[in-house]
Amino acid sequence: AQEINEDISEVILSEDDIKGIVSRLGAEISRDYAGKNPLIVAVLRGAFVFTADLLRAITVPCEVDFMAVSSYGDGVKSSGVVRILKDLSTKIEGRDIIIAEDILDSGLTLSYLVDMLRGRGPRSVKVCAFSLKDIPNHTPAIKPDYLGTHVPDEFIVGYGLDYAEHYRNLPYVGILKPEVYSR
Ligand code: PRP
Ligand code: MN
Ligand code: MG
């Protein structure tokens, strides 16, 4: 394994932890979707790393497509109003859709996305989230159908998760040192 980035105070999911989580998710999906040819929808940008691994852990025929969204609202992280920056290239009517996300925080973006895709007449829409942030006294707007792991209510990066577009390339998930985002 490589050296830990100097901006990371603590690694919370190692490469091995991640491998174990993703292979379990792949096995669950393979069991549930045999013969269904699900379409895995990666939510760019964060989910691209997880989706690439998840696809290779799925052993039944499946397809992949990509969607890029941005939630806006002044300063608030996720307003629940989502702008589509890149739409799917695939027609999803009658399809079984699995949305792949790197992290579920407030869940507002994802719940909007699920409603929007449901409106296109797919056969089913499920959510596979690599991680779910445990926020005290807060219930997320949506519950994932497949969940990799819980993560603490900290500023975490790596494995696709960014701070100002950096750190997505870290192969582990770690807590970003506060001095990095307060400077
Ligand atoms: C992050 C993350 C999830 C979303 C979770 O994406 O990748 O998509 O926020 O937050 P929520 O549950 O509160 O809606 P971000 O908007 O940072 O875009 P990115 O994936 O391009 O980094
Ligand atoms: Mn994202
Ligand atoms: Mg981000």
UniProtKB/TrEMBL annotation:
Matches recorded under Pfam families: Pribosyltran (PF00156)
Keyword Lipid metabolism assigned: no
Localisation per UniProt entry: Cytoplasm
Name this protein carries in UniProt: Hypoxanthine phosphoribosyltransferase
Annotated Gene Ontology cellular component terms: cytosol
Cofactor: Mg(2+)
Biological process (GO), any one: GMP salvage
Organism of origin: Olsenella porci
